[in-house]
Specification:
By secondary structure, this protein is an alpha+beta fold. It is 38% helix and 16% strand. The protein has a single domain (2-93), classed as name from scop.
Length: 95
């Protein structure tokens, strides 16, 4: 996620069976630029979410996203899955 005005970026990762997504990178200025360049190089979609970035910048590296941010982060992850053409697992429809 990106805040283009202030050049801040936060990278998240979600692992199956994890309690929540984890902060895997964050930074401002040139560090944010490096995060975005690496995401582009790896084909990872990025999205501008300035308010969410501000909250996530307050967390420490490797910290799990707190429950109060689950809905906002889930929306961004669902968007990224949709862009990649992946099916989002739905536990209610699982066999």
């Amino acid at each position: 996620m990106v805040d283009k005005k202030t050049r801040k970026a936060v990278a998240l990762a979600y692992e199956i069976n994890s309690a929540a997504p984890r902060i895997t990178g964050q930074g401002e200025g040139f560090v944010a630029d490096a995060i975005l360049a690496k995401a582009k190089e790896m084909g990872i979609p990025t999205r501008s979410e300035p308010e969410l970035v501000e909250f996530l910048m307050q967390l420490k590296l490797n910290e799990l996203v707190p429950p109060k941010l689950y809905a906002a982060v889930a929306e961004v992850l669902a968007w990224a899955y949709e862009l990649d053409g992946k099916v989002i697992p739905n536990p209610e429809n699982a066999p």
